[in-house]
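Sanity check

After download, print the first record. It should look like this:
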Amino acid sequence: MNRRHFLASSSAVLAAASLPACKSKGSAGSGEKKTLTVFTWADYLSEAAKEGFEKAHNCKVVIDTFDSNEAMLAKLESGATGYDVLVPSSYAVQALQRKSMLLPLDHAKLPNLKNVDKDYLSKAVDSKMEVSVPYMMAPTCLCYLQSKVSNPTTSWAMLERADLKGRITLLDDMREVLGAALKLLGHSLNSTDPAQIAAARDVAIRWKANIAKFESEQYKTGIASGEFHLVQGYGSDLIQAGLENEDLSVFVPQEGTAFSCDDMCIPKGAKEIDLAHAFINHLLDAAVSAENMTEIGARCPNSAAYSHLTEDFRGSPVLFPPDQLFAKCEPIGDLGDQLPLWTAEWDKVKTA
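Expected structure tokens:
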């Protein structure tokens, strides 16, 4: 999953975000620089947010990246150490917590928790923020070329249109594809009902017969070039693509979608626990969060930051969908011991 820049900015947002964070007691005055190592997605932290923290805390922030939650989990489970902050998706946080790989958060060191959107927390997997804090969220969307697609709808059923055969891509992601099929059928995208998963499999097999390929990276350039006419993709990617090409239309499907959140957490074995808390608190600052959102093109569920955003950003129906539609969206949850049920049906899709 690649994260891209939104590139919408305003002088008010940037000026506010440039204010330095409060310094940790004795941090900036000490001679020795500490290093905070963050394991996250690529292009997922603005330079202003990073540099502001480094200056305020007299430290160096080192970024290491992963391209999927599964790759991140596999690396940590293989014994990789040295990370102070992780930024996995919520369902991966659940998996890490189930394996007792996370430290509990010290809320006394996180005064900016008060800024987190309470409406979001009501459906978050860690609603009490015991081991994780929401960082950014964005929906999985559909995007089409307006010049090539006649009579569009806002439904996942667009993926079965015969006139688009061979011009469609789906994400190469079991949870996203079967999840979308489940939403089309009116079910939760986290269903563990065997009959529902089998029905979603059948829908996905029909979709597969209609697409050019499963693709999780190049769909952005493919639709921009006209190679593809309809793609399933991540909201932040597609918003960026839409800014660069007015022929693109991006929408959240009417049946609902994965509106997934990536969370900040601290792994067991972290060396800089206090600095990790300070980093999380810094990114929850209203002005810092607004600048960071604007730069990377995703929405942080930070109520205090919303007033710092431009009207264009706040008006995005992709990042801020109407309440009735947002109610149909869900975070991807950890399947636990039901994962084999999903992988068995996904294997049938891929080999069909």
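If your output differs, re-run the checksum step. Summary of this record's structure: Confidence is low (pLDDT under 50) at residues 1-29.
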